[in-house]
Design brief:
By secondary structure, this protein is an all-beta fold. The protein has strands spanning about 5, 10, 20-25, 35-40, 45-50, 55-60, 65-70, 75-80, 90-100, 100-105, 110.
């Protein structure tokens, strides 16, 4: 069983930055592919960024060049650095761990508004 706890969401003005963190329980964090998803009101949950156990990354086209996913296996934590935020980035952001099983965090709200 893996528990995921997100933090770092909040209200930010357009053009601003936030860093989301996701702390995972368990001793085999390094085996997991870690993902960040987001879900805006009335929309489906979409994949934003992924980082595999070996460190390779993938991004949704809408966030390429603005968001960076990283992981610290010693701290069992994955991060999402979000720069140049836009109003359309407003959503609940969810951390997701995938290996043999799949686990979700509770989500953290990100609101981009002036």
């Amino acid at each position: 069983q893996v528990q995921l706890v997100e933090s770092g969401g909040g209200l930010v003005q357009p053009g601003g930055s936030l860093r989301l963190s996701c702390a995972a329980s368990g001793s085999i964090f390094s085996y997991y592919t870690m993902n960040w998803y987001r879900q805006a009101p009335g929309k489906q949950r979409d994949l934003v960024a992924s980082i595999r156990s070996g460190g390779s990354t993938n991004y949704a086209d809408s966030v390429k060049g603005r968001f960076t996913i990283s992981r610290d296996n010693a701290k069992n934590t994955v991060y999402l650095q979000m720069n140049n935020l836009k109003p359309e980035d407003t959503a609940v952001y969810y951390c997701h761990a995938q290996w043999i099983n799949s686990y979700w965090g509770q989500g953290t709200q990100v609101t981009v508004s002036s």
